[in-house]
Structure formats: structure tokens, C-alpha cells
Write a structure and sequence with these properties.
Elements (H helix, E strand, L loop, with lengths): L3 H7 L1 E2 L7 E3 L4 E6 L3 E6 L4 E6 L4 H13 L9 E4 L3 E5 L3 E3 H7 L5 H16 L12 E4 L4 E3 L13 H13 L10 H12 L6
Antiparallel strand pairs: 1-2, 3-4, 4-5, 5-7, 6-7, 8-9, 9-10
């Protein structure tokens, strides 16, 4: 297999606002696109490669430093390599909280407590966990919590996003009458409203 740096160099992304994926090595399978990067599964491995858009390469360094800070904490992926525009971390087998909600997979009180604990451990390392949302928290196939996309864990301002999600869990989701399977368009609509702060929890 090629070196990680060579694999990252094989990923071609357009230098415009669309950040269109133009090409990638055949050993990389696209598994996601975020606000700043594409994510690939590296064939025949349990690793994922995150390749940042041309205008977000500075984020690669920041996120690598944060992953290095939390390497001793089991709730965060192992960082295997990092370069100017990429990271290589564990590929996580499981479902995000967003997927759990859309698929009707139960999210438990124990899961919520485990996420709280994971974030508290990051704070003890001097970080400020921020931008915690449904798509960057996984419940693994072993029913354990994993948190990804930690680039904003160094920001200074206070972020109430996780507290608001936790409040929603206790006020609504945990009630027996509340549906445990929610269509993605409803979740996306709630997220859009939340971002505009029209619907504070």
C-alpha cells in the first residue's frame, strides 16, 4: 500500500467554493463530506483518511494537535498520521447519534453519561469541547462512545450545543411517548432552526 502522504496527494479537490472531489486513489472509498474535508475509508484497513479542502488546510494542523492531546482517552480515535492537508485515524464501526435517531436505534441514558464523561476528560486536558452535534458522536458496534471532528475543541468562546442536546434528550427523547425513530428531514430542519437560534432548548 502507498504511504499515507501519497494517498492524500492522490485526492484532487477543486479550488472553488464547491470543493468538488475530482479524483482519488482506487484504494480510498469516500464515506463522507463535511464542512472542511472529505473522509475516506482506506481499503483493507480499519483506518479512515480525512483530506481537507484547499481553503481549510490550516484546520488539519489544529485537529491533529487536538487528537494528539486526547490520545490517552479511549473515547477519541487513534491518530496514526497527519500531514499538511490530511489526518489518518480509526475508522469507526457503528452509527452516529443522527443515524441512531433516523434508524430507530435506542440512545440510552448510559450513552449520554459516557459522552459527558468523554467531554469532561477532554476539559481536563485543557480543551474546550465545542461544536458537539449528532453527526460527530458515534455509538460503536460494541455500544461504546467515540467522538470525532475535534477541530473546534480549542476555541475560547463557550458552546452550549451539547448541553442543549442533553436537555432535549431528557425533556423529550427519554419520555416513553416520544418517537425513537425520526426522519432525517425533521432532524435537519430542527438543526437549521437551532443554528438561527429561533428554537433555543
Amino acid at each position: 500500500m502507498q504511504q499515507y502522504s501519497e494517498l492524500a496527494q492522490s485526492v484532487k479537490i477543486s479550488h472553488d467554493k464547491n470543493n468538488t472531489l475530482l479524483d482519488a486513489d482506487h484504494s480510498l472509498s469516500l464515506i463522507g463530506k463535511g464542512r472542511s474535508a472529505y473522509v475516506f475509508r482506506i481499503h483493507s484497513t480499519n483506518k479512515a483518511m480525512k483530506v481537507f479542502f484547499p481553503n481549510h488546510t490550516h484546520t488539519a494542523k489544529v485537529e491533529a494537535e487536538i487528537y494528539q492531546t486526547v490520545q490517552s482517552i479511549e473515547y477519541y480515535p487513534t491518530l496514526y498520521d497527519a500531514g499538511e492537508n490530511y489526518l489518518v485515524i480509526d475508522h469507526i464501526e457503528g452509527n452516529t447519534l443522527f443515524e441512531c435517531l433516523t434508524l430507530g436505534i435506542p440512545i440510552t441514558e448510559e450513552n449520554i453519561k459516557e459522552i459527558d464523561h468523554a467531554l469532561q476528560l477532554a476539559r481536563k486536558e485543557g480543551l474546550n469541547p465545542s461544536d458537539i452535534h449528532l453527526r460527530n458522536i458515534f455509538i460503536t458496534s460494541e455500544k461504546k462512545v467515540k467522538i470525532i471532528d475535534v477541530a473546534r475543541f480549542k476555541q475560547v468562546k463557550s458552546c452550549s450545543q451539547w448541553q442543549d442536546l442533553k436537555s432535549a434528550f431528557h425533556l423529550f427523547y427519554s419520555k416513553s411517548f416520544f418517537p425513537k425513530k425520526i426522519p432525517s428531514f425533521i432532524l435537519n430542519s430542527i438543526a437549521a432552526i437551532y443554528k438561527k437560534r429561533f428554537f433555543p432548548i
